[in-house]
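Q: what does this look like with (R)-mevalonate bound?
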Amino acid sequence: MVSPIEGFSKLTKEEKIDWISENYTQDKDASKVLLKRYWNDDGDLQKLHDEFIENTISNYYLPFGIAPNFLINDKLYAIPMAIEESSVVAAASKAAKFWLERGGFKTVVLGTEKIGQVHFMYSGDVEKLESFFREVKPKLIEAATSITKNMEKRGGGITDIVLKNKSSKLDNYFQLHCTFETRDAMGANFINSCLEQFATTLKEEARLHTDFSKEEKDIEIVMSILSNYVPNCLVRAEVSCSVEDLQIAGSTSSQEFAEKMVQAVAIAKVEPHRAVTHNKGIMNGIDAVILATGNDFRAVEAGIHAYAAREGSYTSLTDARIENGNFKFWMEIPLALGTVGGLTSLHPLVKLALEILQEPSAEELMQIVAVAGLAQNFAALRSLVTTGIQEGHMKMHLLNILNQLGANEAEKKTLVEHFKKNAATHSAVVEAFENLRN
Ligand code: MEV
């Protein structure tokens, strides 16, 4: 049994590696070697990564790939993606190429409003609180000027503060529901700093408010935090073409293909089990770009899934329709992203990813990310309603299986050729590999 450790964070990186390897791994020496093998030879670069988080002992690599040929509002992009799943970049590239020949993707930002809340408890007269709030609102904004002045220079700032009575849901629960414009920053630190200042001012002003009774003066601040649910920070991405132009291998006719695509979306609209997987495929594209551009994929995931459930039942994020001989496929999603601040100017590959994307504003990045999600869903549904997902997926996964089996380069080449003409299931790959070796 391992005993708890005091002061782990104070150990040097080597000492941390020794401790973890000696206490928690089977082959201590191999673990130590492995963890150090992933260190970067460039000491400064390694130190930069070490300092992103606490208790860093090594680096964890993900492939950084490119999906080229994305035509978005008539501008051509090559989209960087960081992801481990073998078929994602291939699927994105295929969808990009398909829509490149059909006018590309059209996108529009529908809103950029960010949200934060001060949650507090108040057990007095509600009308008195409302009148206090009307009086104190300008003071709340005023008290935050040292935090907001730079953001205001960039065209952002606090857009509103609303008092919300939530006491029908939870006794004595009220909130300041605050909205912000944060321009090219994701804005989490800015918003949280403003909220903490609002909370301090609210409490102080309540204490001085002469209309309040002794109990009413004692507003209890519970917490101040941004919300990752941003339904008014919304982007729309769309593709469309005439049904005739939807010629797809593996489908008898373009009309049949278009109808099946619409049915596939309709199923995901009404069936949560399917909707979750359908949306997971969308997130394959979204998360990969979010990661490559140094944004917070947990925030984006949480916000998008909440949006998918906004009507009370979890549903598809995408929509599809056939109208007057035209096939239309689109999606609206909330995305709070930044192209300044955070890791964007620190992580060298994030900087490069943003350069590859031609230094987008946060609004442009919202559009690129939404397109990556829509493309991914198109590619997944296209396979699902025609050949099935495994054909393409296993082709991409083939090298992983061959690597697991220990195939050498010549064997890999032969077997990749073989599986261009044969169905690649896991057992078929193992069998073909064994036959080749024998
Ligand atoms: C796999 O990562 C994603 C899919 O399951 C998405 C879908 O089913 O739509 C292929």
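Residues 85, 277-278, 280-281, 284, 380, 384, 389 surround (R)-mevalonate (CB under 6 Å). The chain is about 50% helix and 20% strand.
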